[in-house]
Amino acid sequence: MKPFTKFPVIKSGFALAAVAAALLSCLFLLPQCQQAKAEANPATAAGQKAVPEVVDFNFHVKPILSDRCFKCHGPDSRARKGNLRLDTREGAFAALGESKSRHAIIAGDAEHSALIQRIFSDDPSQVMPPPESNLGLEDYEKAILKKWVEQGATWKEHWSFIPPHKPALPEVKDKSWVRNEIDRFVLARLEQQGLAPGPEASKEQLLRRITFDLTGLPPSLEEIDAFLADTSPDAYEKAIGRLLASDACAEHLAAKWMDIARYADTHGYQDDLERVMWPWRDWVIHAFRQNMPYSDFVRWQLAGDLLPHPTREQLIATAFNRNHKITQEGGVIPEEYRVEYVADRTQTFGTAFLGLTLECARCHSHKYDPIEQQEFYQLFSFFNNIPEYGLIEPYGAIPEPYIRLSRDEISQVLTFINNTDTLDDIPLMVMKEMETPRQAYVLKRGQYDHHGEPVSPGTPKSLGAFPESLPPNRLGLADWLLAPENPLMARVSANRYWQQMFGTGIVATLYDFGSQGALPTHPELLDWLAVKFEEDGWDVKAFLKYIAMSATYRQSCELRQGLLEADPENRLLARAPRLRLSAEMIRDHALSISGLLNREVGGPSVKPYQPEGIWEETTGGGGGSTSSYIMDEGDMLYRRSMYTFWKRTVPPPSMLSFDAPTRDFCTVQRQETSTPQQALVLLNDPQIVEACRVLAYRAVEEGGDTPRSRITFMFRLATSRRPTDRELRSLSEYFEQELAHYQREPGAAARYLSVGQYPQKDLLPAPEMAAYALLATTIFNLDEAITKG
Amino acid sequence: MQDPINERSHLLNRRAFLSRASIGIGTAALASLLGCNPFRTDSSSLALGGGVLGAPHFAPKAKRVIYLFQSGGPSQLELFDHKPLLQQLRGQELPESVRMGQRLTGMTSNQASFPLVGSSYSFSQHGQSGAWLSELLPYTSRIADEICIVKSMYTEAINHDPAITFFQTGSQQPGRPAMGAWLSYGLGSTNENLPTFCVMLSRGTGRPNGQPLYSRLWGNGFLHALHQGVQFRSGKDPVLYLKDPEGISRESRRQMLDRIAALNQQQLEQFGDPEISSRIAQYEMAYRMQTSVPEVMDISDEPEYIYRMYGPEAMTPGTFAANCLLARRLAERDVRFIQLYHMGWDQHDNLPSAVARQAMDVDQASAALVLDLKQRGMLDDTLVIWGGEFGRTNYSQGVLTDTNYGRDHHPRCFTIWMAGGGIKPGIVYGDTDDFGYNIIKDPVHVHDFQATLLHLLGIDHERLTYKYQGRRYRLTDVEGSLVKGIMA
Q: How many domains in chain B?
């Protein structure tokens, strides 16, 4: 990423001086802006970033070496230049040249360190990195490297490859603020920066936050009122307990898992035929509802079929690894695609559980992390032994291996499967191990037909070699992953649940704990949480509650004076984050407050409103049930968004607008954007317009008799708080204005009330009803309505 | 005179900025606006037109691109690549010395015989360069002096899905940004009221049920969602969700947006979250699009001679010809990347009749677009591209009869043409062997083509990168060389 990402903003009329100053500070924050911001290094008056007093290898030096040097002096031996590697201690300090007389780094002697000489060189043929690499160093970065060498070039192992240990709790001054250990770590850091934590959020704000975070839905007015009325000391804890026990919580946690598992209802390539994977989704909801330990949750999905005498439930769990795309395109070379599926499983394993970009080692050894190409294929070989074929043949067949779930076993044993169909049995793709494992090879340049050396199952040495005591299959791999000495699994998992509650991980790059990833803002806290999560039996709900109970989580999101300057991205957590709701949450919010939401849990995917023709205009005529979109009717239009049918080549456009990923591959972190398309969806999508009309019906029926009371009712549902006098005045004025407008044009009022399938209610004359419906849409379009603060 | 809508939005943006300043947020807020967390990027600056590069790497030859993508794999042998030898050897086996063991698709790899077949259509020479063009392309033949015919394209994929994904995103597997998204990211927008990357689809008559398309072909991949291609559609809702619901007038929409902005403004004053000002700006952009998109889609003001140029189909919304005309209208409004897809070029069987219908769909309008741009002085800085994802085999797929044959996918050589901004007009570049099977001169890989396209727009393809998951990605992956021979 280039530092001057949005430079042309200057042209748009911002004050030049301010921009110049901001660009300078932005520049300083790169390349590791996350942690650099957390360091909150002040710019000096001259606009030069101060090099820290003590340069830290992991925090200051390694990110530069990784980003600018490892490409040619890193783990990939084939790409290595000048026989120099800077990713290991031995390599960095080794004697160089034929006479072994030179050293890249001589601790304490910058003048004679070749690395320092070269990065400061004016000679284009000498300077490092070379100009043609486009990886040049900033002055600040050169100064960091020089100072590090001068200070003795202390080397440290990469932080995330060292198994976590529970650290000592830091001392803090303001002990009265602390509610649990989380707060000790956060507060210690704040105090170090001279910052104070924020006040507690209002009860309304807090209930809205925790309800969205744990269930993906807004609190009802009854819930808000009950919470406001409950003055007992454990009112908040009771609310958390109620939320965690709800079906909505299980659904919400499962919805998050769908991105990671790249869940979809179609095969994903070319004609994009329909597949049946929703029984697995029902199992995921069931697992979260039971609060299954996360370790079992993962073990079953990775290797349920290899457990002794696996149950049907354990077999269903393994469908996780069949959620990848599968092609039916006539004429493809099946082996080419089979290799793609195995690589997808390997990549998913790396992203979801290890927080590593393993796929970078598919064509060559990893450029940044200690993962050799051979090690990628050792991991690959765990997922390579499925009796599968690369091509769906004949057209429309169910790809092997799969099981059939009979109606009887669903009604008697697998009762969590919501079989609303009248089908006799349901086929479900699952994992199965071949009796004789398929030999895996290193694939040269990643190509399916370029076999290199044969490889056997194994794990990267840098993460702990695969023990001989474990079976060399997926079950052994799951055991390796879940062992206490695994440095990544617990950290990556704890970090992801932290992100679910705070919007940003302690490691901001959820998908990359390697050299190119962000560094943890609170490394000790992350280790504390990782070890605690594991020690407490990988209890997801207890873990979420533990975070929610902290004073850190309960803060107000208000930006106090000076806070934006001191910590613009809120990495130190002196306030709660203010976050836009996800695609699913926004739609579910509208359905929920209107009362339309259909609370049925599980079952086959549904087809709610979608712009006409978008499947039809891209289809080639094949695809069967996915060639044209046949919208559902009635209650099916109002299911939670996680049940919306996911056609991978043409995903639901309103969901994509709000940053849902395409589900082409495992995604652990969504973008968070703000675009004009989002405004168009919220203003014009019939789903939202209809929900707002029905919200207006509710307001008329339940919200009192005056415009003010009804507006207040709708406003509270959308934002979980009462409007201020000023807001209420503004909205009431607007109501009168629109009422007058619709009275002048009653035809327009009737047309506005006709949007959507929900039957019209004859509660008020059309102009008045339409004005309320318009008010509902206006309120739902407020930034605050789609935000949790 | 500034139009009232723009003025209003200008004031709004200004107000948003001033309010930030007035509550003392200043530079740090801006740093956050410019922040480098790739997952929380403020969008207002992007909406206002900035690209990541600020300025191009060097002076661009083209300001915008119109890409007439021919989906399915048009047969170069019936259209551009004249091979008399194939006519002489009709029915004889493809010699192994020519094929050299190259892989075939699963559709013909089991064929017992690979009978060579020449074109059913005749070729003649056109223009100063004497380029050979098929009788199926009478209008294209007349612009032979305007276009550069590249006969030596090749690709790595032999199936549609990976091949078209490769052409549009630089990678056979889904997930990367499309070319238009890269340009939007690199150069930004030159029109405040329209998307930077616009997409239009049409269905061919040669094979109405042919290959599907995928929205990933105009996706933003890992880039900001603002860089996503926006599909322009015929019908009442030209951009998804653009049309106000029934019963909402423009005036009433304006009033609603004003009310939303005023209330959001109060929130901004309380919380100081720059995301709120971004949202205010996005609602304004949405409103402007609601005006400008229908305006550009309304072709009723085009004069009669324009319809004559583009052909009668230009009056039927949703046809390739109508889309070409819209492409010109978008280009006039400085939309950066205009991507058309015409489906139906996958002639595995019944090729002679089907390819003629496909050619008829596109020939007149493609040529008209080039001439129309030229007569408006826009061809100099508009790059026009015509071509598909691969070519077709020189042997017949299925049974070869006196009047009928088919052709399978052929990635090893195929033809595209380019015209306008920075392209040498009136040349034929590269050549294939007499069998039309292998390239014998100046091969152009897909990544070379992409590198050249970026170059014409002033971008060094090695320096337009996006760091995602620790790695710097670019359109051309780790390859791509400029095709200097086609650049003016």
A: 2
Same structural domain for residues A327 and A404? Answer: yes
pLDDT of residue B234: 87
What pLDDT is recorded for position B49? 58
Helix (H, G, I), strand (E, B) or coil at B60: coil
CB pairs under 8 A, 24+ apart, for A221-225?
A: A221/A713, A221/A716, A221/A717, A224/A716, A224/A720
A418 dihedral zone (left: phi>0; alpha: psi -120 to 50; beta) = beta
Tell me if chain B has a CB within 8 Å of the CB of A30. yes
Suggest the residue from A680, A721, A752 to mutate for an interface test with chain B (most B CBs closer than 10 A).
Answer: A680
Place of tokens 């939303």: B260
Strand partners, A668: none
Taking only the tens place, the pLDDT of each residue in A746-771 is 999 999 999 999 999 999 999 999 99
**Residues of chain A neighbouring B289 (CB-CB closer than 8 A):** 676, 680
Q: Is the dihedral of CA B72, B78, B80, B81 positive or negative?
A: positive
Identify which of A369, A371, A460 has the alpha carbon closest to the alpha carbon of residue A87. Answer: A369
Q: Which domain holds residue B301?
A: 1-30+247-309
Residue B225 vs residues B11, B149, B230, B266: alpha-carbon distances, Å: 25, 35, 10, 27
Same domain as B176, residue B73:
yes
Q: Token digits for A65?
A: 């070496």
Q: B218 to chain A, minimum CA–CA distance in Å?
A: 11
Report the distance separating Cα A333 and Cα B159, nearest Å.
9
Contact A614 B240 (CB under 8 A): yes
Q: What confidence category does residue A620 fall into, taking pLDDT thresholds of 50, 70 and 90?
A: confident
- Tell me what pLDDT residue A423 has: 65
Cβ burial B23-58 (10 Å sphere, 16+ → b, else e): bebbbbbbbbbbbbbbbbbbbbbbbbbbbbbbebbe
CA dihedral over B312, B316, B318, B322, signed as positive or negative: positive
Interface of A with B in 636-695 (CB under 8 A): 649-651, 653-654, 656-657, 659, 662, 664-665, 669-681, 683-686, 689
Q: What CATH number corresponds to the domain at position B141?
A: 3.40.720
- Report yes or no on A282 lying in a domain: yes
Is there a contact between B63 and B183 (Cβ–Cβ < 8 Å)?
A: no
Report residue A30: phi and psi, to 5°: -100, 155
Per-residue pLDDT, averaged over B285-307, amounts to 94
Residues B387 and B284 in one domain: no
Six-digit token pair at A501? Answer: 């509650």
Do B363 and B433 belong together in one domain?
A: yes
Q: How confident is the model at residue A422 (pLDDT cuts 50, 70, 90)?
A: low
Range of the domain at A16: 1-26
- Give kind and range of the element (H or E) at residue B420: strand B414-420
Q: Give yes or no: residues A18 and A57 share one domain.
A: no
**B431 and B302, same structural domain?**
no
Flag if A22 and B34 touch (Cβ within 8 Å). Answer: yes
Sign of the dihedral defined by the CA atoms of residues A341, A345, A350, A352, in that order:
positive
**How near does any CA of chain B get to the CA of A753, in Å?**
8
pLDDT for res B210? 78
Helices (H) and strands (E) in chain A — how many of each?
31, 8
Token pair of A585 as six digits: 């949450």
Least confident segment among A10-24, A573-587, B259-273, B300-314 = A10-24
Sorted by sequence, the CB contacts under 8 Å of residue A410 that are 6+ apart come out as A417, A419, A426
pLDDT of A693-711, one tens digit each? 999 999 999 999 999 999 9
Mean pLDDT computed over every residue of chain B: 89
Which chain B residue's Cα is nearest to A671? Answer: B39
- Residue B211 falls within a domain, yes or no? yes
C-alpha A756/C-alpha A770 separation (Å) is 14
> How many domains does the structure of chain A reveal?
5
Are the beta carbons of A731 and B259 separated by less than 8 Å? yes
